[in-house]
Fold:
Amino acid sequence: MTLNMAAVTVDLVLLTIRGGTLQVLLIRRGIPPFEGQWALPGGFVLPDEDLDGAAVRELREETGLDPRAGHLEQLGAYGAVGRDPRGRVVTIAYLALLPDLPAPVAGSDAAGAAWQPVESVGALAFDHERILGDGLERARAKLEYTPLATAFCPPVFTVAELRGVYETVWQTRLDPRNFHRKVTGAEGFVEPTGQTAIRDRGRPAQLFRRGPAKLLHPPLLRPASA
Amino acid sequence: MTLNMAAVTVDLVLLTIRGGTLQVLLIRRGIPPFEGQWALPGGFVLPDEDLDGAAVRELREETGLDPRAGHLEQLGAYGAVGRDPRGRVVTIAYLALLPDLPAPVAGSDAAGAAWQPVESVGALAFDHERILGDGLERARAKLEYTPLATAFCPPVFTVAELRGVYETVWQTRLDPRNFHRKVTGAEGFVEPTGQTAIRDRGRPAQLFRRGPAKLLHPPLLRPASA
Structure:
């Protein structure tokens, strides 16, 4: 057990929708390696915590956010030789989909934290560009087969707001009438609250909450162009 | 980097179909811990190899099989405190779907290797029952949305043989006519070879090969009973 040891870290792809764009939380690194560069938030797994616990703790430390306000899942392990100049480091990446939350607070080893539109993210430290790319594709695919788009929404929402999530994550336009039919036709995706939202014009829009479904039957597939 | 080090292993959930049942390759452990117990094949990641490389090497060492004959993907990382009595060990689990291959050969630190029907697998070493369960669910879900059922098939196959894969993995019966319509209707799932298989009775069955599709549109969904 003294041979072939590695440091184990967790890194987090935290996604939210702000101002109609899909945004990722990035940390400006306050310590070497890659000091001053943007990176995904994360850190070392402690001896007494499991991987999921480390992900939740790191998020709290770095940002003050609680990922359980939305959805958190493991994205995958990344362990290429040389991915960290300090030595062998295997990282377990997590993906979180979050509703719009208060601005993050930089933690102890971060010089700053900021939500950035995913389209305008530049070079990142380590192999974090690849991890971010994998996280974005996972999120886009999950919206097809699961009700996880609701993780980006407040507890109650209109179908138009839910459509806005799909359009933002998939970077495409969807036909409102067709979308409404599919969402209300997928069993257990959304449930009417019985209340309506006040709108500037037209008739009031129904408010929904997330239903009990774990998978969408039938799924909502991305248009071929998305 | 001297604190919080862990050993990193890979473990493999290797699935194939033999004699009409879904089977998993298990190793009888030849060394402590859990000596003499069944476990998933796997081992430590070496300093000069990445995670995928370790998975391929371990499989060859333990069994003589090449997972690239079928399909290999990362299943997830498992790192609960106490999952290995030797100390902190984080394992990266892989899932492989394989066509029926020659019998495995036990490697250096395995007392034996055997394909076992997944329904009759008993207690396994470490947290390998949980990993196997996750691998089975991943395989069942992947058959809905991807053409990966063909990874269990020889290079050319009939639609009836492909249906047999679905029925075996999902443990359910599927209507032959309905299945044929769905498979040939999902763009790029299978391609006719122009050849036919000789059958005992009835007209000869068309032979197909896997098509170029990465995802099934529309997907083949599990019956509610599966």
